[in-house]
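Researcher: Can you fold this with calcium ion in place?
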Amino acid sequence: MKTLVALVLATTLCVAAGAEIMFQDSFEGPSPVNWQKSWGPAERSQDMAQDGAWAIRESLEDKYGLSVWYTEFPAHPRAIYKATAWVFIPPTDKKVSAALRFTRRDWSGLAGAETIEQGKWVKLEATYENKSERTVRLQMFQGGAHQAGVGGTLMYWDNVTLERELGEIKLDEGIMINPYVIEGLEVTPAGGMSVKVAPGKIDVDGKTVEVTQETVLTLEPARVIRVRDEQAKLTDEEPRGYSKGTPLQLCLGPGVTIAGCLDPGSLVIKQAAGPDAPRYEEGKDWRADKLWARVGRLDGAIGADTTVFMDYDMSLMRLDTIFVRSDGTLGVRQGAEHKMIPEPPKPDAFARPLCNVWLPYNCREITPELVYPIGPPYPSATQAQIAANAALLPRTIEKLNQGGDFTIVFWGDSVTCGGDASSQEKAFPLAFTNWLRIKYPQANIKYVNAGTGGWNSDGKLPLFEEQVMAHEPDLMVIEFVNDMGMSREKIFANYTKAVGRVREIGGEVIIVTPHFVRPDWMGAGDNMRTPETRAAVTYLREFAAENNVALADASKRWEHLWVEGLPYITLLYNSINHPEDRGHWLFVEELQKCFPVAAQ
Ligand SMILES: [Ca+2]
């Protein structure tokens, strides 16, 4: 069974694959990218074109034979970039060579293609596989030996395309998920709180660093807080889940108890204070849901008015980072402990993070699944993707650009209400609205939050007229993690009604796919590397595609967190279903991808 599960995971758990077009430019209209020029004159011209009326004309300067037309883009680790461009060199007796080339910012070359053919359009193709560059240039220029005396020689460029292929990331790649690892460096448990790191090679700030010997590192356990003589009167309600029964006070999070933080073997309920006080009997006098840190009295020696004294141990969590220094030595740095949302430590300078090690509650032994190699970041949206999303919101973008009154209504549940961000400004609805206000200062954006905690679209639809339509939204953003149990028919029926009503008055809609919730609530056991399991997410994507509704696919973003070395539950403030600030910001980032200003 275990083998089967591993096999299924290995084949299904991939992240992004296939070539994506980052941009295409035939220079006919406004450019989708920020082209720059250097040295000789280069500009849009109608002298000749491979396609349409316009192309780029470069006129070489005389001293070095230079003229450079280029754009810069953030490069994704382990991505393969492919550029194509058409070039025409008018017949000349000068010896020039047209080059399409990927370079670093210091102009040093990474990969490219050249031609010296004259008098015809030639297609150049260049492919570059990135390892550790963060910013790469795509240049079109005179690539031959720099020579004097070619001044005024021309070349024309047209139909430039840049594509990227991110490659699949699979669970069974182990430490090789880390794009900077060149070989070796597997991190494996070595008993107790120790791990061993195999010898190997890794890129540290652009330099290949060798780790020559196996290294054993021992991690400190996360702190355990010992609570003694906590007084309470116990309810006779059956303790169950996050809200039923009497909570152990230190195991409380925001209004709910936090699953797993109680050391289950530590709970003792006594008649008086002190370690030697007589104890009540579990199963006869009291019962507990030890996962959810809740207790209740039974028909025994504890009465409704009896004050009991409780001893228990409660654990914090931590994320530590193992890194390689530029001298080839290894180190481990502790993250800050937290009851729900531990963050990894800030990286050291001149060191490359290799992996995070997650210390969940009461962790006394490092197991293989607690090691989180740090893979590539989530890919930024391409110009083409942003343009495709924006095309689904034409009136929104026109109105925001024009300025004037604009109303945005957020329709959703407790997460839309702000749960569990540290402030409304950090919750995604207001954070996103404030981002729009900065990006479109000419617009007067009215913000309406029509969220209700604990509700779903079924419950909210009868109130749709007063809660949403009364505000005459120009844009409605829908977020219902509480819709995740719904059938396809139900999703399509509810969203058809809601989207239809907003469209009737000329408004537009963005549907947000939800974040991840506790893995056992997703049907994924305790797996923090789970792909999306909820069928309703697929229905939302299908509904959006079939009805030309813009989609902010936050689910995909959460699916990627393990690749970045993060067990996703460390972004849930109640350890159940409410994102903390970083989690809310992930919604904002996905919403931004619908707006062309995000690329500026
Ligand atoms: Ca053209």
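Model: Folded with calcium ion in place. The longest helix spans residues 488-504.
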